[in-house]
Amino acid sequence: MMLKVQNLEVLYQRSILGVADISIDVPKGHIVAIIGANGAGKSTTLRAISGFIGLDDARVSNGSILFDGRRIENRFPHQIAHLGIALVPERDKVFPNLTVQENLEIVASRTGHAERRHLEASIYDSFPRLAALKAKLAGLLSGGERQMLAIGSAIMCSPTLLLIDELSLGLAPVIVDDIAERLMRIRDELRLTILLVEQSTAIALRMADYAYVFENGRVVLSGSTDELRNDSSIQDAYLGTSGGEQRNYRHVRNRAQGPAK
Amino acid sequence: MSDQVHPTQLSTVMLQPASRSARTIFVSALLAVAIIIFPFFATPFHLDVANQILLASIGALSLMLLTGFAGQISLGHAGLIAAGAFTAGILSKEAGAPFWIGIPAAGATGGLLGLIFGLPSLRLRGVYLAVSTLALHFIVVYAGGEYENLVGGSGGILIPPPSLWGLKINTGKAWYVLLVAGAILAFLVTWNVVRSRTGRAFAAVHGRETVAAALGINVARTKLTAFVISSSMTAIAGALFAYYRGFVSIEAFSLYLSIQYIAMIIIGGIGTLPGAFLGALFVTLLPYLIETVVAHLPGAQAMAGSIFAVNYAAFGLVMIVFLVFEPSGLVGLWRRLERRLLIGRQSP
Amino acid sequence: MQIVLNILVLGSIYSLISCGYVIIYKVSRVLNLAHGELMMVGAYLLLTTASAGWLGSPLAAIGLALVLSLTVGILVYVLLMRRMTGESVLAAVLTTIALGILIRGAVVLLWSAQHHYPATKLHIANPSIELFQNAKLSLISLILIGVTVATYAALFAFMRFGRWGLRMRATGQNALLAAQRGVNLHAVYALAWGISTFTGAVAGMLIALDSGLDSTIVMIGLKAFPAALVGGLDSLAGAIIGSIIISASEVILIQHFNPLLSDAVPFLILIAMLVIRPWGLFGTREELDRV
Fold this sequence. Notes:
The complex is a heterotrimer. By secondary structure, chain B is mostly helical. Chain B has one domain (12-285): Orthogonal Bundle (ABC transporter involved in vitamin B12 uptake, BtuC), CATH 1.10.3470. Chain B is built from 15 helices and 4 strands. In chain B, a hairpin with a 2-residue loop joins β2 and β3. Chain C has 13 helices and 2 strands, in the order αααααββαααααααα.
């Protein structure tokens, strides 16, 4: 198991409960999604994994987070980044007063110069839009471009586990499709494991292999996405009656990769 | 990280009115008795020190109101004290104004200065008030210096002892009575402000400005109100100081004085009213303590010239120790000791 | 002409000091009210290295004092200010006030309250140079102007192109995101304190070499603060402009009006600025909402 969260409890300001008793597993090479409504504790869980700083006034008060068998709870974010976990945050995901190129350069990576060049090349390769905007201030980018840049600079950290807090939030469906597709391609190239938090259940179920459903800071349901897609309670609560075309990104990946080994 | 909530973040915790337990009443009664019998045993020197502490408490209470409850710092406390002192001094010298005019006039001057220098903070968050009050300090000191130059020499202003209802207040004991009354009055005023709607608004402003704004509290106006009330009280303390000393000179109001007041509230415990008294006590007594200690050290003669430097260093050090290790000050220390004692008694 | 030179020299002094306020504020939103005192420490360190005969040359003494100043700045963060990260800005600012008064006392205890002349100790001559007709400048003042220009050039280049400069800018914008991108915040903050103390110390040393040294030098440091604020607390370019404005008003008013105004002028301008445009000439307006 690449990431193992056990009985996680997070306290804000030493007294406010963020999440209680969360347990999730993320196997190597898989995409795992966390779905649930606003305030269900999804973001808090991701933030606990990626580390809090003093300003957050939050801490993991109970339980453990194991990454490759190592306990990482309550470490500094930069230490966690150096272990190989990178986060695409929900808000404030880029440095607005830095250029696109600088946003990638700021990353204090855990790899050598050659690997950095290589990563940068594959980011610009996967997101050619960013290559065209290299010298532009990130604050002037559109929402979709920001999301691409945020994914790009997370990937510059050369992670083995990528945490994404809301891939689709605030973006037009066609842009989400585009970004998701490119993300899947770069994920295959770099063999990334992904833990994805999504408000849009449809997108989460399309991208992930396995999903956890959060409610009020607890896990209420979990299962493979195939199971969940057929689960009537999920359909009622989160999907609505989904008609029309349903694209499956895993299918895209398989096509890009050829037959699975 | 300790479990202690940092008082600069959550003063609300301290704001709840203390439960009137038997213990509190006992301590208050003991204090009252001590305060009443003190002048009968005190030497003139001790009375003078006590009066200084009382004067400092009034100033500390007003700074506590601003910093402890509205989350703003003022570096202009010395400037406001100077403004109050000079208002009383100038009125007395130029117009022969009596005490009962000098004091409210000083309060009005302080309030006006607070309004003027607090205005920029209406548009600003964070520590900008500190910047503006730093300016206030230097501008008041400049004005005071100009006045002294104008009247000739840099001798300062002499003020005759005040009289109230025909009684001349010119002995240590008389001053002690007056200042105890003044300190109690200042305490009641701050206590009422803290407990009032405005006071709760202060606490909210201090906690989270955005939250306060969302609750419909006019953050800017609340901050300004805090600053005006605090400035007015500070200037009154300055006027009392001028009458007490019988003499005002701008020399007495350096930036160091402002820092001493900041030291009082840090050491006493930011966000607690009793902390203002404890801080005033500590900060007033520390130089005397240092003087005594240094006098017993070998080479005391050589040190005599730099005793002020020992004071500076000691204040800095004590402030840092409290900020880092005991952010809730002497009050926090007292509460913790008390808790430990209580637990100790329960489980022998 | 002389008045222009005077403004230029004073403006350089203020610029060299005020960039220290800007660096720390830009990176961590903390007003370092001990900056004047840290500048003074730098000057007194030069006094000590100047007395160390084994160093040989004056340049070695200055170099060692500079290295020590940088170390002092980093230590201030590591030993003291680091404990204040995560606390409110108020607590951090109060801590710098406490540090300032501690340094003031300690400096007098360590080096005495006398007026010292490090230039004499280092055998550095400070002749007057006539640049224009009837306009003179001391050699050290001239060097000071050059050093200020060089320091700002270096700072601009570092912030623009340097890897750590980039990290400092990023941390100032969003500390959490910087940390998530692998940046060690403590290292960035320690560096900011180091650089800030270093540049302050350069100013302190040059002032001490030019006109001698005692603890009143702190006042110059404090007067550089309005310069930083008038320019905009998060703008290096603003610090230069602010310094020129403050020094020009100070020099002109003192010359033509009243020498007593010297200490009050910078703060009068500061108040005017706070009323008209509180974020300063070049500061970012949105910065204010985040404090």
